[in-house]
Design a protein that fits this description.
By secondary structure, the chain is of the alpha/beta class. The protein contains twelve helices and 14 strands. α3 crosses α11 and α11 runs antiparallel to α12.
């Protein structure tokens, strides 16, 4: 397999809500909040479910790459319950090698309530369940060593067992890619993420807000200067301003597509990463890789959910 993804194995539950619903429940639009099972059930009780589907940030990217014809795999922890089986079936249906053998766990399979407001923004409330208990024993040494790239998500980062899984993957991988995932995620783990970006990662995915928070700057010129200094492959999505990649001190840009019928922004960054990584492992130029990422991202935001 060319790429192995390691991330939170989460079943997405998509619901349409008003802006007032977010205010009523003290939720910050376009971010992800970790909640417990009681709060998840309480929120869900007042909502109409539009769709339930296997999700998780890196898993969405891995599915996108599989749909483009790449041989890929995913490691993520689920319970041996109904949602865990649904999750596994969803990946297998998309020809993804699911590299985790589910067992009976103390916690249920993780779920994410994705709240879609009229402006198409998504706000996420995640009950990690057993997904947040992934550990180094769940990461197969031989599989990681044989893949070209290991793709990680910032959502997975946490002290304790998940960090050990992260560290093991980093030590064994030929190339490490990671998405910073979410602004609140960056702000919670800024020191650790900055250390990862500078010293351990080869490819970094972020949106403009996340990368500016990471380096504590307000100017995008500072982001470009920082990215040139670390001499990595830094890939940044900028919404209507398109996307940019800074690789080996060179800057590459791609315009956003115009005239789209935007319905739901869930998965936009995940599918962008899928397209970019597809280009990378198939020897596309940086420009063509950015275009492929933009193409996939443009498709996903014109439908409900994070799977094309």
């Amino acid at each position: 397999m060319k790429i192995i993804g390691i991330g939170n194995a989460i079943v997405d539950v998509l619901c349409k809500v008003s802006d007032e619903f977010l205010i009523q429940h003290s939720l910050t639009k376009s971010t992800m909040k970790l909640i417990d099972e009681v709060e998840f059930t309480k929120l869900l009780s007042s909502l109409k479910v539009e769709e339930t589907i296997s999700g998780g940030s890196v898993a969405n990217s891995i599915v996108g790459m599989s749909q483009l014809g790449n041989e890929v795999g995913f490691i993520g922890k689920v319970n041996n319950d109904e949602l865990g089986q649904k999750y596994e079936d969803g990946l297998k249906k998309e020809n993804v090698n699911y590299l985790y053998k589910k067992q009976n766990e103390n916690l249920p399979t993780g779920t994410c309530l994705i709240l879609i407001t009229p402006d198409s923004e998504r706000t996420m409330c995640t009950f990690l369940g057993t997904a947040g208990k992934i550990n180094e024993n769940d990461v197969d040494e031989n599989i990681i060593k044989k893949s070209n790239i290991t793709f990680l998500e910032g959502y997975l980062w946490d002290e304790g067992e998940p960090k050990k899984a992260f560290d093991k993957a980093i030590q064994l991988s030929k190339n490490i890619a990671m998405s910073l995932s979410d602004l609140f995620c960056v702000e919670r783990h800024k020191e650790s993420f900055l250390n990862l970006v500078k010293n351990d990662l080869d490819i970094i995915f972020a949106n403009e807000q996340e990368i500016m928070s990471l380096i504590s700057k307000n100017s995008f010129e500072d982001v470009i200067s920082f990215s040139k200094q670390i001499k990595k492959n830094v890939v940044i999505t900028r919404g209507e301003k398109g996307a940019i990649a800074i690789k080996n001190e060179k800057v590459f840009e791609c315009n956003a597509k115009k005239g789209l019928n935007i319905i739901d922004l869930t998965g936009a960054g995940d599918l962008f990463a899928a397209g970019y990584l597809h280009g990378l492992i198939n020897n596309f130029s940086v420009e063509k890789s950015l275009e492929k990422g933009t193409d996939l991202s443009s498709k996903i935001i014109q439908k409900i959910g994070a799977r094309i």
